[in-house]
Amino acid sequence: MQALYQRQLVRGKVYAVDGSGLGDDFRVVALVCVSATRPIIVAWRLLSGQASEKGQEAAVTRSLIEQVLEVVGPQAIGLLLADGLYADGPLLAWLKYRQSIDALVSLPEDRLLYQDLKGLADGQLLDWTHHRYLRTIGGHKQVREVEVTAAGELTSWDGFTEAAARYGVPDARLWACLIRDVATQEAAAEPPRALVSTRSFRDGFAALQAFRPRWHIEDDVYRELKEG
Fold first, then answer.
1. Could you tell me the CATH number of the domain that includes residue 31?
2. Cβ–Cβ contacts within 10 Å for residue 14, how many?
3. Which residues make beta-bridge pairs with 148?
4. Taking residues 149-177, what's their average pLDDT?
5. How many domains does the chain fold into?
6. N or C: less crowded end of the chain, CB within 10 Å?
7. pLDDT tens digits, residue range 67-108?
């Protein structure tokens, strides 16, 4: 890792964490710098057995972050992108209030915070905006249409607020947005996706664009590793 940074092969402060199964018994979890065109793996863990059980992944994420900070320094990471599996409330509080690292995380539908945000949207207390943008998947360009809405000052994630209080921040708040694909009627009928962050973005579309580099891991990291 130290050689990667000394040779300036790792540039930028946006990182993502994600995992992929290797057969039935193993799982690799990697911390990847996604600031540049090509993602760079900087740290990883190979998990097996109980180590890969649900509920342990946030601890793995923390150990990866600590490894980078120890080698590179406290300013190495500015924003962490992750799926909900790899980031729980205590991890987000630790990142924000101990390491000064913001996180942008996909929020599962079964979380209370998701239900509260969707309730605000269903009650027409939030405004939706329409956006079109171009994305490239597997070398093919696609035009995507989405509608987004967002809200701040959210507190319905007890794990986060309780951990933040232990760090001396009793009034910690989260920002979150909903994203629904409206390119087709079938897609529009699906429940919207949600992102939650310790950073307040300008709007939901800005958060969506900030989260997009995480998908580089799927195409440019794990797919190539497995094929190789």
1. 3.90.350.10
2. 19
3. 129, 179
4. 96
5. 1
6. C
7. 999 999 999 999 999 988 889 999 999 999 999 999 999 999
Asked whether 197 and 104 are in contact (CB, 8 A), the reply is: yes
Q: Which amino acid is at 168?
A: G
Task: Find tokens 């209080």 and name the residue.
Answer: 165
Structural domain containing residue 96: 2-227
| Tokens linked to 202 | 């300008």
Beta strands across the sheet bearing 40-48: 40-48, 26-33, 14-22, 79-82, 102-106, 193-197, 174-181, 140-154, 129-137
In sequence order, which ranges of the chain are alpha helices (DSSP H)? 2-6, 57-72, 89-98, 112-122, 158-166, 185-188, 204-211, 216-217, 223-227
What is the rounded CA–CA span in Å between residue 105 and residue 193? 11
Q: What predicted TM-score, i.e. pTM, was given to this entire model?
A: 0.89
Token pair, residue 210, equals: 């900030």
The C-alpha atoms of residue 58 and residue 82 are separated, in whole angstroms, by: 10
* 220 phi and psi angles, rounded to 5 deg: -100, -5
**pLDDT per residue as tens digits for the range 132-145:** 987 766 666 778 89
